[in-house]
Specification:
alpha/beta; 5-stranded mixed sheet
Length: 223
């Protein structure tokens, strides 16, 4: 019986790759990558020659059964996403669940993920928090906001850069202009930035300066 390794990859700075992650990726039979073109740059940088296979949100429903059979036959597979820890707003859950259901060992390595540094450096309470990921685009978005408006724990959201200004305007409606938030973008990269303050203040900042890159928003809970 083989096993599945869940391997985090850097969210920006390649120095965040762990020695163990490199070792595992060199030793497994196949690497399942969200985007093989993107991941090939990472593998080349660390001189990893393991064969890659595409595994993303558009094909994972079809490939899971075959991958399970391969591990049952003895192959060891590693799953990586474009950046960060697989299955956190990225493909990975379906394969992990299938392994658990078929008694295949799953070994998730610790490593990079965007929301942890964003939460810690926000200055907002982090003893209790809720991870929301991406909010629904249209259907269910208002309903979700109404629920979150009553949430007392610190909230973590992922927001696309072209939707950030609109999202902050929605925050004014549902959370109030004075609610404290922290917006981190391009974490670990050259142009890393964290803007903290009230919804009103942070919204004004990004209305004047168009946001770019990966964005994590931390929202204080209701008092």
């Amino acid at each position: 019986m083989g096993k599945l390794y869940i391997v985090p990859t850097p969210i920006g700075n390649l120095d965040d790759m762990t020695f163990r992650a490199i070792k595992v990726l060199k030793e497994v039979d196949v690497i399942l990558a969200e985007d093989t073109r993107n991941s090939s740059k990472l593998l080349k940088h660390f001189e990893i020659g393991t064969h890659m296979q595409s595994h993303h949100m558009h094909n994972e429903h079809k490939t899971v059964e075959g991958l399970v059979k391969r591990m049952q036959a003895g192959e060891n597979l590693a799953l990586i996403s474009d950046a960060g820890t697989p299955a956190i707003s990225d493909p990975g859950f379906l394969l992990t669940r299938a392994c658990v259901e078929n008694d295949i060992e799953v070994d998730c390595l610790p490593g990079a993920t965007a929301f942890v540094p964003a939460l810690v450096n926000s200055g907002l309470p982090n003893d209790k928090f809720v991870f929301e990921g991406f909010l629904p685009d249209k259907k269910g978005r208002q309903t979700r906001y109404l629920i979150l408006a009553e949430e007392t724990r610190t909230m973590i959201l992922y927001v696309s850069p072209h939707k950030l200004v609109k999202t902050l305007q929605e925050f004014k409606t549902y959370f109030g202009a004075d609610r404290q938030i922290s917006v981190s973008r391009e974490l670990s990269k050259l142009h890393e930035e964290t803007v903290r303050g009230s919804v009103e203040k942070v919204a004004q900042h990004f209305e004047l300066k168009a946001p770019k890159g990966e964005i994590v928003v931390i929202v204080a809970g209701k008092k």
